Amino acid sequence: MRILHFIFLFFFIAGSHAWAMKIGVVDLNRALNESEAGIRSKNVLETKGRQKQQEFKLEEEELRELADELRSNPLLTPKAKEQKQQQLQQGQQALRAKVQQFEQQLRGEERRFTEEIFRELKGAIRTVSIRDKYDLVLEKNAAQVILYMKQETTDFTQKVIDHYNSLKANE
Question: What is the CATH number of domain 17-169?
């Protein structure tokens, strides 16, 4: 809400002076998803996810075999049957815990990647904004909150993506 007040105050002050403002918008989500670093981080996370999914499928298959043995082996003694049921339940609980832990770990990695890329994108936005002489830059979704603006806005997301990719390529 404070940002909106600042923006309205900025427009009021700018409107009282007879100079035109150059306003730009950047779609941060698009920049994240389409930048080379964003694509790379997404691929890394998807690869890790697929690898772990294969591991989990193997464990799940072992548990399925144990459950089948329990159902289909009438020669098991009651004590052996009870032990196998406990083993099955413990295995299922352990697998669920591993899956939850991995999902949490993956979300943490995704958050770290995203924060780092957003931080770097902000620098790219600043550079492009100064170079192209923008007076005000809004995040595209925040710009949609504004119902009317006298000045036109320019979406320069692609310029930011290109600049950011060139920075990362030079590293």
Answer: 3.30.910.20
